[in-house]
Design a protein that fits this description.
alpha+beta; 5-stranded antiparallel β-sheet; 4-stranded antiparallel β-sheet; 32% helix; elongated
Length: 351
Amino acid sequence: MSSQDIPEENLPAEQDAHGAVSVADENDPFADPGLPPHEHRVQDIDERAAKRSERVVAFLFTLSMLLTVAFIASYVAIPHDRAIFVFPIGHINALNFALGLTLGGALFTIGAGAVHWARTLMSDVEIADERHAIEAPPEVKAKVLADFKEGAKESALGRRKLIRNTMFGALALFPLSGVMLLRDLGPLPGTKLRHTLWSKGKLLVNMNTNLPLRPSDVVVGSLTFAKPEGLEETDEEFQTEIAKSALMIVRLQPDNIKDKRELEWAHEGIVAFSKICTHVGCPISLYEQQTHHVLCPCHQSTFDLSDGARVIFGPAGHALPQLRIGVSDEGYLEALGDFDEPVGPAFWERG
C-alpha cells in the first residue's frame, strides 16, 4: 500500500520544514536543491500496520528480558568446567558459550527493537535547519525545548504503552548481567584469609623430612621450615593451604628475645613465625644468624625475629604473625592454636 492509494484527508499532515529551494545557475552552481518529497510509510497510514510494528518492538524487548534471565540462570546453573560440542567450532566451554550467546542476544534485541521502533513508528520527516552561532540565544533554547517536546510526542511513547513498558523492563533488567559478572572476580573469600590449618594440638612437621619436629631438632642459629600435620603435597588444596600455613622456625637464646609476648609464645627460645611476607606474599627464606633478621628476596622487606618480627626495612606493612607453640606429651613441637591475625599481605576486609 502506498500513499497514492489513500485519500488525501487520511494522510498525516506534512511539516513545512524543507527550507528554501533555489535553482542552480551560472551565478550559484551549488544552490540548495531542497529535500525530496516526503513519502509516507505503511505505518503512517494504516494503524493495523503500526500495531504490528508495536508488537514486534515489544517482542524484541521482551526477548531481551528473557535472555537476561537466561544469562543469570546459565551463570548459576552451568558448571564452569563443562564442555559441549558446537558445530563447526568444536568442543568449547559450555558456560562461556551460554554467557556469550545470552548476553549478546540481550544486547542485540534491545538494539534491534530500538531501530525497528525508530524506522517504523517514529516520525521520519526530514527537517533542514539553518546553521547558527555556537552560543544559543533564548529563542534557540526555546526552539530546542519545543523540538524535544515535539519529538517526544511523535515517538508516541506515551500512547504506545506496550512499547514503553517493555522497553523500561528490558533496560532495567539488563544491568543485572553486569552485576552477575562481578562474581567472576572470584568467589567471596569469607573468613578463609583469616584462618589457616593450624589449630591446638597440630604437630609441626619438617618440610624437608616430612617428620614431626622435636625441640632437639632445632638448634640455635638454624632456620627450619614447617607445615601443619596432615597436609601432604599430593592434596588438591596443598598450594592454597601452604601459602597460608608455612612456618619458619628459629631457635634464639631466650635472653636475646626483646618482645615479651614473643618470649611467652616460644618454647625454650624456639619461635615460629609465618613464612609469608606481609608485603605481597613472597616466601621468606634468608636468615642472618648474628642479627636475627630475615629478608624477603622479592622486595627486601626485613624483619627482626628477636623483636616480634617487626619490620625494620622495606615496603612490608606489618610484622610477621607469630604462632604460639608448645610440646606435646610425646615430646613433639605442636601449635597451641591458630595465628592471632591473618597472614600475608593486608586485604580490604581486614579492618
